[in-house]
Hints:
The protein is mainly alpha-helical and 367 residues long. Helices cover 62% and strands 0% of the residues. The termini are far apart.
Amino acid sequence: MVGLFFVVMMSLDSVHLWLKGANDFAPLYAATQLVGTDDLYASEPYYGFLRQRFGGINESLRYTRPPHHALMFWPLGRLPYDTAHLLWTVLRAAAVAGFLFLWRRPSRPDAVMFTALSLPLGISFFNGQDTPFLLLWIALALHWQAKGRPFLAGLVFALCAAKFHLFVLLPLLLFGQRRWRMTAGLATGAAVLLAVSFAVAGAAWPLEYFATLTDGRVHPGVGNMPNLHGMFEGLPHAMWLEILAGAAVVAGAWHVVRRSSFEVGLAAVLTGGLLLSYHGYRADCTVLLPAALLVLAANPSQGTRVLGTLLLTPVLYTATTGSWSVAYLTGATILLLFGALVVSAGREDMAMRPDQSAAGEFEPARS
């Protein structure tokens, strides 16, 4: 309760907006009413809705999800805004509860404690974002993997396409460990979601979606992004530095997934995916909650455990301006944890345990 109170106090600005519903739910609500029209990715319908509802606009509040996501929550658009926002809050709280019900790594009490302490989750929740659902999808995928149902695990992973930029390294894990049944599930789920998206948004939606994602108005405050993009912002040759560092992250992730268990590999691709994300803020660090818990469950070196624990506590997420911004504090710690996983990937304590893999699918390489 103390941790939860602290998170709420640190999220007071977001709580104030949440009480009015003036948060990231607004563009989703508007999008559910634009499903099936040619305006799903046009800016003016969203800005018009914000003016009508709140008397002003925030240019970053645009719909930035694939069309299937708007269709998934289409029923919310049939309700009055305040009712829909309340139901949205309940659904996301249920997603967090589902995550805690399924998660046992390293233990359920640890998961409950660090979830209560998660400032990124608190910010995401009060900002009206859909990130809490990612926790549920990750927990469900691991649940089905542990139950020997990799195809179902892959299907669930496909739902993470709502924030695909945080999961760009997931294919490395599946291919690197030859998880072919999980890959089939992911491909099947992705194909269904793509078909639905084309059905509801027409053939031109990928180009319209790309135009939205490359619109600078939806990427404000680059210096506060806890990723490579934010860390190199303003430096000479920033683009080339980001490309080189990104290539190193991809190579490091491949090294980890080829020498580690599925769960350690997943922690690496979640951490690396956040580093590579072009668009990412404190709320997106929510994916570090399962990643860091998986690191602690793997019983790595003491230094790696310290880094993982730091990313589970609110300390690194409180500075948002100045030279020691979130981009440097959090981004550097994420990078250090990723590096620690790469260095320790070949050790015995990070090696595959017999009960952690689907029989016959993967055997980690030995150094």
